Amino acid sequence: MSRAETKARSLLEKTGMDQIPVPVEKIAEGLGVKLRYEPFEGDISGMLFRDEQRTIIGVNSRESLARQRFTISHEIGHLLLHRGRPMFVEKHVHVNLRDSRSSTATNQEEIEANQFAAELLMPNSAVRREALKRLTKGVPSSGEEPGGTGGTSRAAPRCCGRSAWR
Hints:
Layout: H1 3-15, H2 24-30, E1 33-38, E2 46-50, E3 55-60, H3 65-81, E4 85-88, E5 92-98, H4 108-121, H5 124-137, H6 156-159
Parallel strand pairs: 1-3
Antiparallel strand pairs: 2-3, 2-5, 4-5
Helix pairs in contact: 1-4, 3-4
């Protein structure tokens, strides 16, 4: 298990919010994070802004709800795992941006934030519980993986390595 997955599991245990779909907005709020939804230009999905007084996660309101949830989780991962890149806006602040390059697995911080988001949104323990519930009722006819997607995109369990079968 990676450092990012361990940190996500620890957060889920601490908050007691490990039922899917995981309420990532409430988790952010519990961490003192303000969520702001804005229609960002270009390929920016979200950003994390933090200074001594506040922490804000900006979310692209033009994206799907599933993508917004992943972005919030990804930025919480940056908050808890990484210091951020220095930026000057009349004073020193730290910013992390999520854009199309974030998913290319070329930057270690982005890889960790993606791992964190995957475990936060689709905790293996909750995916397994859901799979067992569904299997006792019969295999779903929707073609969905037995563990469900936890409010994420249908491709998320496969791309992020989340499966009830591992």
